[in-house]
Amino acid sequence: MKSTAAVLLTSPGEFTTATVELDEPRQNEILVRLVASGMCHSDDHYATGDLRPKVLPFCGGHEGAGVVEKVGPNTEGFAVGDHVVMTFLPACGRCFWCSQGKQELCDNGAQAESGGRPEDPSSYRLSLDGKPVGQMTGLGTFNEYTVINTRSAYKVPKDVPLKYLSLLGCGVGTGYGSAVNAADVRPGHTVIVMGLGGIGSAAVQGAAHAGAANVIVVDPVEFKREVASEFGATESFATIEEAADKARHYTNGQGADSTIVTVGRLQPGDVTAAMESIRKGGTVALTAVGTFQPVATELNLGMLSMMQKTLKGVVFGNWSPFVSVPRLLDMYRSGRLKLDEMVTRTYSIDQVAQGYRDMHAGLNVRGMIDFEK
User: Fold this and answer.
1) Domain 175-315 top-level CATH class
2) Cβ distance 154 to 163 under 8 Å?
3) Which site from 3, 167, 201, 225 is most exposed, i.e. has the minimal number of CB atoms within 10 Å?
4) Domain 2-169+339-370 has CATH 3.90.180.10
5) Are 208 and 175 within 8 A, CB to CB?
6) 346 near 368, Cβ under 8 Å?
7) Over the stretch 332-344, which tens digit does the pLDDT of each residue have?
8) Residue 51 CB neighbours (<10 A)
9) What share of the chain is helix, strand, coil (3-state, %, to 5)?
10) Backbone angles phi, psi at 56, to 5 degrees
């Protein structure tokens, strides 16, 4: 079948609309009609060239929700009409990491950037003019329809509106988990969140829900500082230096208990500043993504060791998507998690490039493709 998708033809480049061909779903695969897709900064890294697709053309998008239209042969657990949230980290359930309950590190995830299938990175389900099209993390949710592996799908109740649930597949789980898992925020803590995009706004909610007394947001964009309090921030500043000074004010000069780095494009100076902002025994949760090339970063190693500071890498909030999605969904249903408020603008499938221009201009907390628009 044919479908309209937003693809990269070059990297660096801009997403452009194209008509792609979809294969039929095979065993353990489903065909999904998209209802909505979040526009995460990670997709933009492929457009800017920070990350390079293994295959071009490349269909972006890894934060989607939709309705199952077709189920591959001999595929259990899914039926036509099911509502699903797509998770960008496939989980096999059997590898070394999955067996320890750390599905976010599943060996299948190592194939996610191939653009192919998690079990066979050389196999593709989309094509354009006879050429294979890579799918972002095997999903490619910037597409009216997509074929995905069931290891990347979580079935959700039909009585919950699907549109905003798409955010659970990446940004919300990543940000919320960065606070409650990676940063281990506790009641009474002072927390700094660097960057208020989709992930940052979820991290703020996680810190607030965990009982932090002070949740301090850093963002150079005035609009984002103005809306930070809607997600639970107690204060916001334009620079990390101002935020760190405020954190020291609350902690008798010690610094924040934790700093969560959720900036759009990670720079070496962000790591340095974050490490300097925390107290002895504090934690920096490094969630943001920059280039995958080696870069020089200045750290005071004596401070790191003698003050027992921790620099911790974060993947999907350091928890399994098959744990986070149902928990966060229940919080959303009960009104304790804000998803709708995170989406500040919606776009049609042919407006993806404009959506990312708006993101760079600081106009969005989270942009979303609304396929029903």
Assistant:
1) alpha beta
2) no
3) 225
4) yes
5) no
6) yes
7) 999 999 999 999 9
8) 18
9) 35, 25, 40
10) -120, 140
H helix intervals, the chain: 41-48, 171-177, 198-209, 222-227, 240-250, 268-277, 301-306, 321-333, 352-360
Predicted model pTM = 0.95
Cβ atoms 321, 104 nearer than 8 A: yes
CB 202, CB 182: distance < 8 Å: no
Long-range interactions of 109-116: CB distance < 8 A, separation 24+: 111/138, 112/88, 112/137, 112/138, 113/51, 113/54, 113/137, 114/54, 114/55, 114/138, 115/53, 115/54, 115/55, 115/58, 116/55
pLDDT band at 118 (very low <50, low <70, confident <90, very high): confident
Distance CA 75, CA 172 (A): 29
260, 179 contact by CB (below 8 A): yes
CB 112 within 8 A of CB 89: yes
